Amino acid sequence: MSPAATPNPLRQASYQASAHDSAQLLPDTGREVAFAGRSNAGKSSALNAIVDQRGLAHTSKTPGRTQLINFFAIDADRRLVDLPGYGYAKVPPALKRHWDAFLSRYLETRESLAGLVLVMDARHPLTDFDVQMLGWCRAARLPVHVLLTKADKLSRGPATAALHRVERHLREHGLAGSAQLFSALKKDGVEPARRVLSGWLGLEAPGGRPRE
Ligand code: GDP
Q: Which of 4, 90, 145, 193 has the fewest Cβ atoms nearer than 10 Å?
């Protein structure tokens, strides 16, 4: 079957459950891919573009409000996980500590986690949040794919410079990772992102290898 005729199984994603701490996570079976990003980076818009559904992940109107981990089922064995993002000064320190502890532990210990999609605003990549997440991915030996989104707001030169900066960071920090430009608005980069997710979830290559 030609790639053009292949349906996008990610379109089947549907809301499954929410959690606000480790105890409420779904059972650690099958495979999942998580999305993270500093608040307002464009994570919800990227997730919606990739699954080709307008309102699956809710775009944030209130930066820093209490957030949940949302699970979206693709099928019985595969999930997408929308992790909380933060980064605004108004997030209370106790809440930031809660999410820091949760995120580092989740990335380190979650057996079903095949990879992390880290969404960055292409105009401001590698924020403190991003660098911290990448550090945890390296410690956990977890593959990471960086989406440099809102690329439509940049012309070609600065967009390429941002991509090279992130690729260099991944290389220099010994991360198993890749990066690409993305625009939820223009739907640019959606197919390459889907390919990474499908590979991690074993959707195209049954038995495909998750984390090392
Ligand atoms: P989140 O907080 O990371 O989930 O970010 P959202 O997806 O809610 O997006 C934050 C803001 O950026 C919203 O106003 C979106 O409309 C806007 N946005 C998200 N993605 C893009 C994009 O690719 N291009 C442009 N121009 N704006 C975007």
A: 4
Average pLDDT along the chain: 89
Structure tokens given for 123: 């105009």
Q: pLDDT band at 208, cuts 50/70/90? A: very low
Torsion of CA 99, 134, 45, 212, to 10 degrees: -100
Kindly report the number of other CB atoms within 10 A of residue 22's CB atom: 13
d(CA 29, CA 78): 9
Q: Which residue CA neighbors atom 27 of ligand 1 most closely?
A: 150
Q: Which residue's C-alpha comes closest to atom 24 of ligand 1?
A: 150
What amino acid is encoded at 71 in this protein?
F
Kindly give the number of the ligand 1 atom that is closest to the alpha carbon of 47: 7
- Residue 13: is its pLDDT beyond 70? yes
Nearest CA to ligand 1 atom 9: 42
CATH number for the segment(s) 9-201: 3.40.50.300
Q: Where are the beta strands (DSSP E) in 43-162?
A: 69-75, 78-82, 113-121, 144-149
Mutate-to-test residue for ligand 1 from 38, 39, 40, highest number of ligand atoms within 8 A of CB: 40
Judged against a pLDDT cut of 90, whether residue 121 lies above it is answered with yes
Tens of pLDDT, residue by residue over 128-176, are: 999 999 999 999 999 999 999 999 999 999 999 999 999 999 999 999 8
